[in-house]
Amino acid sequence: MTQNGIVLVVSVSIIKNNEVLMIKENKPSVINKWNFPSGRIEQGEDILIAACREVKEETGLDVKLSKTTGIYNFISSTNHQVILFHFVGDIIAGSLKLEEPEIIDSKWIPIPELLKLDNGKLRNAGTIKQIAEALLSQKFHPLTFFKEQLIT
User: Which residues form the Nudix hydrolase domain (predicted)?
Assistant: First the structure.
């Protein structure tokens, strides 16, 4: 969702055997950049539901969110202010099937290796590396930080 130049985004670290799933994007503004499964929150959408939806759309995997590393604020390559809500999720169903043509590759990377990747190969490298540091140091917050949307 974009409002007044501010973009609200969710992203998810899916961790298996001490490796995190990364996807390679093929969108006009970020060709061949590695990122966590992520995307914009839709108007009126619950943040937690948005995170699960984006993972499913981009990877074919169903996840259950377990915790959050926090909220990140940065200026994107398209000069938008981005507020990113990052979560950790566990695979509960599905199989890896990339959303082509927007997602062209995926790989499991040991978490410490994220810090060593060339910044030019990452989408918003500073933020990805902040998240990797949080994952490594296990600096997590409970999901109760995000209140479920009340339906009226």
Answer: 5-137
> What values do phi and psi take at 52, rounded to 5?
-65, -40
The Cβ of residue 50 has, within 10 Å, a number of other Cβ atoms equal to: 20
CA–CA separation, 21 and 3 (whole Å): 30
**46: which DSSP letter?**
-
**Separation of alpha carbons 130 and 142, rounded Å:** 18
- What does the buried/exposed string (b/e) look like for 112-128 if buried means 16 or more CB atoms within 10 Å of the residue's CB? eebeebeeeebbbbebb
**What are the extents of the domains in the chain?**
2-145
R_g (Cα) of the chain, nearest Å? 14
**71-74 contacts at long range (C-beta below 8 A, 24 or more positions apart):** 72/127, 72/130, 72/131, 74/124, 74/126, 74/127
Q: Which fold has domain 2-145?
A: Nucleoside Triphosphate Pyrophosphohydrolase (3.90.79)
pLDDT, tens only, 80-135:
999 999 999 999 999 999 988 999 999 999 999 999 999 999 999 999 999 999 99
